TrEMBL record:
First-tier enzyme category under EC: translocase
Descriptive protein name: cytochrome-c oxidase
Cited PROSITE patterns: COX2_CUA, COX2_TM
EC number, UniProt record: 7.1.1.9
GO function term, MF aspect, one: cytochrome-c oxidase activity
A Pfam cross-reference name: COX2_TM
Transmembrane annotation, as ranges: 47-67, 88-112, 132-152
Length: 390
């Protein structure tokens, strides 16, 4: 409501200023020698100089932005391929900055040089093959180089060696959270289908598949340092995107198909917390939080907890109302800590069986026949059918 009022006030203010300038123009009618709408040399000179003003604004804002916000970019990638990815981005940025610095200067300089002048006529200039060849061939070479380098980097990142010892983990996206499934000792994920989702089997794992028997589902993603992880990605409902910025990894999760991405984590969560740049970033965040806490305390409200760094899996596709909060904590452990963590987790098969047993126990009294009578086979059969269908 407040923003609507602000917008209305701003619109009314602009109308008022516009009307005032018209009144001012009317008061000047008698004084002006030239009241035509055709630009004079003086007007064109002003426009020409304004071109340089705009050019200066572009350069100053770019440099200011880099100095003020440049430190906000993520540093030190936490995956093996991360530095290749960062190099590709830095080279692309360097080329873009270099080319834009030159072309913008030329564009604005020529706009100034060939500004309108009284009596000037346009020169008819058909073409110049040499000039056209130069301005075509240079971008062709630069872009082809960049594209080839990009393809080479992408292929390297996406390549998963069949013989390499990778750990298969599934990430299951749904509105609005994530689940992870570890493939267990056989390192093969059991089949899964959205139609099989029922009760505790929240990922729709096919419990008749032998490969599914040792699968483990978790709501926190733990990864062992130094081991290549092959992520298999699925979605339960709409398009999501698994985004792990610190590992420079992102892949869409598409309903009805399995996508994949692999990377090797190279720093544990603890190591990343001690990284110089990360320490700096965390202390900046905590300074902001401390300031906010002081403000909240003044209003008698509880303050904010200090921030501690954690890797995150985020959703990077706008998938609905709570998309902004669709995240899962990632912990990179040492291989030993990872094994200890995983050991404590029960399999999905066990959870499903326990659930079945609990439900069967609840239904059991119904199926117990009265001792004196002949066993009522229809009731037993119905109870069995109920258990089977679960
Ligand atoms: Cu999402």
């Amino acid at each position: 409501m407040t923003s609507l009022l602000v917008i209305i006030v701003l619109v009314l203010l602009s109308v008022a200023i516009w009307q005032m300038t018209k009144i001012f123009d009317l008061t000047q009618v008698g004084n002006k020698k030239d009241n035509s709408q055709v630009a004079t040399d003086n007007d064109n000179n002003i426009q020409g100089y304004l071109m340089f003003g705009f050019l200066a604004f572009l350069y100053i804002f770019t440099i200011f932005g880099l100095l003020k916000w440049g430190h906000l970019v993520l540093s030190n990638p936490a995956s093996e391929h991360g530095s290749d990815y960062d190099n590709l981005m830095m080279i692309s940025f360097a080329i873009i900055f270099f080319v834009q610095a030159i072309t913008q200067a030329l564009l604005h300089y020529f706009a100034y040089k060939y500004r309108g002048k009284q009596g000037n006529t346009a020169l008819y200039f058909a073409d110049n093959d040499k000039l056209e060849f130069i301005w075509t061939i240079i971008p062709v070479i630069v872009l082809a180089g960049l594209i080839l380098y990009g393809l080479y980097t992408w292929t390297n990142i996406m390549f998963v060696d069949e013989d390499e010892d990778v750990m298969v983990v599934e990430l299951y996206a749904k509105q609005f959270n994530w689940e992870a499934r570890y493939s267990g000792a056989d390192n093969v994920l059991g089949k899964a289908n959205v139609r099989l989702i029922e009760g505790v089997n929240t990922m729709g794992v096919d419990m008749t598949d032998p490969n599914a028997q040792d699968d483990i589902s978790t709501t926190e993603l733990h990864l062992p340092k130094g081991k290549k992880i092959l992520f298999k990605l699925r979605s339960q409902d709409v398009l999501h995107s698994a985004y792990m910025p610190h590992f420079r990894a992102q892949m869409n999760c598409v309903p009805g198909m399995v996508t994949q991405f692999a990377f090797k984590p190279i720093y544990t969560t603890d190591e990343m917390r001690q990284d110089e740049k990360m320490v700096e970033k965390v202390s900046t965040i905590n300074k902001i939080r401390a300031k906010k806490t002081a403000e909240l305390a003044a209003q008698g409200k509880p303050g904010l907890d200090p921030y501690t760094f954690d890797y995150l899996l985020l959703c990077n596709k706008i998938c609905g109302a709570s998309h902004y909060n669709m995240q899962m904590k990632i912990v990179v452990d040492t291989p030993q800590d990872f094994q200890n963590w995983l050991k404590g987790k029960g399999t999905i098969a066990k959870a499903v069986n326990d659930d079945k047993a609990a439900k069967a126990a609840q239904n059991a009294p119904v199926s117990v026949p009265a001792p004196a009578k002949k066993p009522d086979t229809t009731v037993v059969a119905t109870a069995e059918a109920t258990v089977v269908s679960k």
